[in-house]
Specification:
9 strands, nine-stranded mixed beta sheet, binds magnesium ion, elongated, binds adenosine-5'-triphosphate, 214 residues
Amino acid sequence: MITLALSKGRIFDETLPLLAAAGIEVLEDPETSRKLILATNQPGVRVVLVRATDVPTYVEYGGADLGVTGRDTLIEHGGQGLYQPLDLKIAQCRMSVAVPSDFDYASAVRQGSRLKVATKYTTIAREFFASKGVHVDLIKLYGSMELAPLTGLADAIVDLVSTGKTLQANNLVEVERIMDISSRLVVNQAALKLKQAAIRPILDAFSNAIEKNA
Ligand code: ATP
Ligand code: MG
């Protein structure tokens, strides 16, 4: 049995066409079913639904053989124990710094001010500001980062941006692009060896499908 860990929403939706290319069809809709284990048309393949941030943990410890997870989540997790064979080029967005439109970020940085930065992505934010030589106090949040500068909790946020509409709706502007983000396939290292015969064809089909999309 091969177990694939996915999170509900965009990662699940955007992985479906890749699974189809591998001849795998998920038999239940996670938006209507309450099940956390979903059968597929292949008796030897199942999908488990976990929180986006839990996907690397499931795959690292063998709760799942394979998983799909954002580069953001992988960096924060550390990626230890995971084989990362493919950038699936799905769930594409970017990690950025944003501030209220009336905050002069450039001069704050120039003057060497200490910045209060709210984010769910403390590893990425810490490394980014350290590389710029900017001193920051990081405030760890688990969601709704946009609210932090509006309430005085922080001067800036580090968050994922795709269209920029959420920032705009909250009077925030993007002032730095830290990195491009997309989702990757991750594989449990032991499973890759022990279940090669089942995993290899899935990797090959995903890889061919990505090339066609490119
Ligand atoms: P949860 O809702 O369980 O707390 P989450 O909010 O991190 O988790 P999603 O918002 O579905 O879950 O994000 C999952 C992954 O999708 C992220 O880790 C990121 O790689 C990617 N992602 C997030 N936001 C966007 C976006 N606006 N556009 C494209 N991809 C995105
Ligand atoms: Mg979410």
